[in-house]
Amino acid sequence: MINREIIEAFSQIAREKNVDRSELGEIIEKVFLTLIEKKYESTDNFDVIVNMDKGEIEIYQHKVIVKDVTDPLHEIGLEEARILDSGLEIGDPYVEIIDPTSFGRRLISHAKQILNQQIMRAEKNVIYDEYSKKIGQIIIGDVHQIRRDAIFINIGKAELKMPREEQIPGERYRRGESLKSILKEAILGATGPEIIVSRADPR
Q1: What's the whole-model pTM score?
Q2: Which helix (H) or strand (E) element contains residue 11?
Q3: CB 168 within 8 A of CB 199
Q4: Tens digit of pLDDT for each residue in 64-122?
């Protein structure tokens, strides 16, 4: 039941953010890999499978059966493994099923935070991809912030920056006015895309 609750909670956020259903499944996988990394400090022997149609999240941890366990993250003792399958031997691979509730009672709220971060990152990548293909094109947006060193222009969810050196000398701008400019550059930085526009560019 907890799996369906998690997926339904995530789906609600995704609908609000207009995230595609298939993309949501990939994001949920990343969310749980992040939770696994936090709890186990590694994800190299884990698989996360999300079935959006059934509302199921499956987490598998791959181990090797040994006589004496020295690495609990990657190994399981023969005696313990044989509780589930008496035919197992030392050296055999063993797949342990991890219950999503093992991450704690705050799983959903914590996972929601990570999901929001992942969605924001995805939205920023979409903005970068869209505007990086429009370099040199004329675009029209609304002035929403005026600073000494730059003007910021909104087009939908995208924020575009017009540095002072890209402005026409002596030209005055008003907040809320529509402004035509040339898309000069798109840079994808650590905090997201920086879209540079110009009115001074001779193009």
Answers
A1: 0.58
A2: helix 2-17
A3: yes
A4: 999 999 999 999 999 999 998 999 999 999 999 998 777 766 666 776 777 778 778 87
Which spans in 66-197 are helix H? 78-81, 107-132
Please identify which residue in the block is written with the tokens 């005696």: 79
Domains and CATH numbers, the chain: 2-120 (3.30.1480), 134-198 (2.40.50.140)
Q: How far is CA 142 from the centre of its chain?
A: 28
DSSP state of 100: G
Question: What does the alpha-carbon distance between residue 182 and residue 199 come to, in Å, rounded to a whole number?
Answer: 6
The pLDDT tens digits of the residues spanning 66-79 come to 999 999 999 999 99
Q: Which of 122, 188, 117, 194 is nearest to 158 (CA)?
A: 194
Instruction: Please give the single-letter amino acid code of residue 198.
Output: S
Quick one: DSSP state of residue 187? E
